[in-house]
Amino acid sequence: MKKGKIKGKYGYDVEVDIAFKDVNPEDYDILVISGGKGPEKMRLDKDALEITKHFFEKNKPVAAICHGPQVLVSAGVIKGRKATCWIGIRDDIIAAGALYEDSEVVIDGNFVSSRSPDDLYAFGREMIKLLK
Amino acid sequence: MKKGKIKGKYGYDVEVDIAFKDVNPEDYDILVISGGKGPEKMRLDKDALEITKHFFEKNKPVAAICHGPQVLVSAGVIKGRKATCWIGIRDDIIAAGALYEDSEVVIDGNFVSSRSPDDLYAFGREMIKLLK
């Protein structure tokens, strides 16, 4: 994943200010992994997986929604953790050892997850609590 | 999944002649699972999973490509089987116990799988061999 301008699903331009390879995860307080088609690419980026492992190893706040937990499967950090996700990947996180729950937001220590955009209010609420 | 007209990704109309719930898998010689966004929906259809289990239990021919193996993860039939898939779901089939190989086509008895549309020639060739 490179620095620079990228186009979102609905045509909006987004300025990416840093590439995964240039991120020092020590500088960040929370990791937020959104959904859509991105996680299937992010999970193939070894630097993104190293960043993800850092947050879990240091027990720092992590929030993942929809397809976001695909990255957690690839980083090998979801086993034994309470989590939810987009229903289409439910069986994948279960196969990877997650303790799946069908709730708008699932809280497991410093890790929160939600199922879909319909859950964004609860997801945002619990994510912010992690930073307090 | 219902009988009737559906629209494909590129706008083509497809006439679905039978719903999963009305399929008697005994009447069919091969199960072919294509990729794209379909498998994330098909894997949530209990009738589709029963059809899939029938083919594996009876050791009948199965061919899956791209995201198709997501259905095999949900049907619980991929553990211990040699397989390949779209690279974005590679870690999911590995978590589910598949013996992943990065090849244009992977043959494990009566089960063949491929990675992407670029592999279609090899996929079709081996699929047809299963029917001979």
Note down, in words, how this protein is organized:
The structure is a homodimer of 132-residue chains. In chain A, the strands form three sheets. A four-stranded mixed beta sheet of chain A has the order 3-4-8-7, sandwiched between helices. Chain A has helices spanning 38-42, 46-57, 69-75, 90-95, 120-130; strands at 4-7, 13-16, 31-33, 62-65, 82-83, 99-100, 106-108, 111-114. In chain A, α2 crosses α3. The first copy, chain A, starts with a strand and ends with a helix. Helices cover 31% and strands 20% of the residues of chain A. The first copy, chain A, has a single domain, classed as 3-Layer(aba) Sandwich (Rossmann fold), CATH 3.40.50.880. Chain A is α/β, with parallel strands linked by helices and 132 residues long. The A-B interface holds A 40-41, 43-44, 70, 73-74, 87-89, 91-92, 95-97 and B 40-41, 43-44, 70, 73-74, 87-89, 91-92, 95-97.
The share of residues in helices of chain A is 25-40%
* CATH fold-type name of chain A: Rossmann fold
Q: Which chains share the greatest interface?
A: A-B, 15 and 15 residues
Mean pLDDT of chain A: 96
Number of helices of chain A: 5
Biggest sheet architecture of chain A: 4 strands, mixed
Distance between the ends of chain A:
30 Å
Low-confidence residue ranges of chain A? none
Count of DSSP strands of chain A: 8
Rg of chain A is 14 Å
Order of helices and strands of chain A: EEEHHEHEHEEEH
CATH architecture of chain A: 3-Layer(aba) Sandwich
Organism (chains A, B): Methanosarcina mazei WWM610
Family (chains A, B): Belongs to the peptidase C56 family.
InterPro entries (chains A, B): C56_PfpI-like, Class_I_gatase-like, DJ-1/PfpI
Protein name (chains A, B): ThiJ/PfpI family protein
